[in-house]
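Entry 14. Ran structure prediction on the chain below.
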Amino acid sequence: MKTKKIGKHTVTIHNYSTVIVGAGAAGMNCAVHLYEFMREKNVADPANKIAVLTGGIGLGASRMSGSDKQTYYKMGTSPDVADSAADFAKTLQAGGCCHGDLSLIEGIGSLREFYHLVQVGVPFPHDKNGTYIGYKTDHDPYERATSAGPRPANL
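Output, structure tokens:
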């Protein structure tokens, strides 16, 4: 490991091909997908080529700590509440702040990335059948939101 003397301080030099800022859902999904991509392309030692910067371990923005304010959109996964990516997109557009194509892409990608977070170990609450528990947010007519961490709002 290289170091460099700067004034009175010795600084460790780190070398990464990619630095992801933020350890929230998007940052962690980005890191895992990039790692998988590098591995598929036979990049040597991909885990040591990616750095994820966060304000600190165990803070609310960290993917494993959560709080009652950390909300993830999973679309409706309950067998009792019908939902689709198109319905999700309509809800996003209803407020007038999201374009139709972008909202559909977000709707399609949200469920895949939610399950990706489940796969990497984010402890989302679920019932005995495996349905991920959700709650309504803002003007959302479905229970598309869920929280992770020690104080989920939906438990």
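Residues 60-69, 151-155 have pLDDT under 50 and may be disordered. Will compare against last week's run tomorrow.
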